[in-house]
């Protein structure tokens, strides 16, 4: 397989292979919450999550789905001619709630002009059978992705971040998705740089996802956002965030663990600048991505490069 960046199977390569053009995800807020926010399993949500539940870039929050899509698509279309769009239900847990209501929102999204697929962000412990049956049927005619928030497999970190489910539930969720919805693209979210985690912890999480059977992986650096419980610990000096080269080094080793058929959906992210407390070097996403690719090429990083992974480079 030939990668456009010469290093890994990117989301851009993946979507172009499916649709033959540039594809953008438009964030949508379905008005959901999470079981670790509403008291079902806990309160407060994950300690790194903002008050908007990772939906800080939604255009037209609290508006109808169609309005959110229109505004999000218009924002991109000013710069790109005739792009395709995936409706990304991103904020909070988007399979948690009344299944009929959620399915209606999914339907309205995929039937909006210009939308070629659906991505649903959720938790592994919130996969409703009725919704899974719907997504399986939908995947016969549309691209469908389910994105699972795992973040870490370190049990101490799991408790610290208030995730409120065990690693076994993630493994079970991937297995169920692959069995009940074989056409659905499964993506796993990971966070590097959680307090007190080692390089081994981060790489073990990547290896775990690969062995569990995920189709794609999203990795982001820990962002400390003002107003979160994580920010309180950061302000107290209880941990430090990773610097740029430290992060790139771990990413390079992670790529060596990811087979070339698994899509790397993200290796960098940018927290909302208005509430980003640290690390501030992540604020310029384009600059970070360019620096990252330059670092990878200089270090000879590519998937399967055991020499790099062993530390000889």
Describe, in short, the structure shown.
With about 325 residues, this protein is an alpha/beta fold. Helix content is about 35%, strand content about 15%.
Describe the structure.
By secondary structure, the chain is α/β, with parallel strands linked by helices. The chain has helices at 11-19, 65-77, 99-110, 129-138, 155-160, 167-180, 199-212, 229-235, 244-255, 285-299, 306-309; strands at residues 23-28, 84-89, 115-122, 143-151, 185-192, 216-221, 224-225, 263-266, 276-278. The protein is built from eleven helices and nine strands. It has a seven-stranded parallel β-sheet, with helices on both faces. A two-stranded antiparallel sheet has the order 7-9. α9 packs across α10. The chain starts with 10 loop residues before the first helix and ends with a helix. The mean pLDDT is 92.
Physical arrangement of strands within the biggest beta sheet: 1-2-3-4-5-6-8
Write down the overall mean pLDDT: 92
The rounded Rg comes to 19 Å
Structural class: alpha/beta
Please state roughly what percent of the residues sit in beta strands, choosing from under 5%, 5-15%, 15-25%, 25-35%, 35-45% or over 45%. 15-25%
Number of helices: 11
Which parts are unreliable, with pLDDT below 50 for 5 consecutive residues or more? none
The run of helices and strands is: HEHEHEHEHHEHEEHHEEHH
Q: How is the biggest beta sheet arranged?
A: 7 strands, parallel
How helical, in percent, are the residues?
25-40%
Q: What distance lies between the first and last C-alpha atoms, to the nearest angstrom?
A: 24 Å
Q: Which word captures the global form?
A: globular
The number of strands is 9
